[in-house]
Amino acid sequence: MKVYLADAEEAYEKARAMFDKVKDPSPKTRAEVEKLLRGMKSDLTLVKRGNGMHNVMYSIELLESVNKRSDKVISLLTATKP
To answer: Mind listing the pLDDT tens digit for each residue in 9-36?
Structure first.
């Protein structure tokens, strides 16, 4: 579980850092990215607080979802670069 959590946290931080670096994304892109980041952070918090041990498969699914949403954030932000 620690490896999954570390990977997901790294993916979140990478997406968050990229969002912070992109200047003036479109309002639509900004809203979508902010929504994705909030969801990612919420899922990370849920797994951390529950220690991921009460429902291991669900925790892994959440963490894998964080990784996928990180890829989506990066894709959205890459598409907005001039």
So the answer is: 999 999 999 999 998 899 999 999 999 9
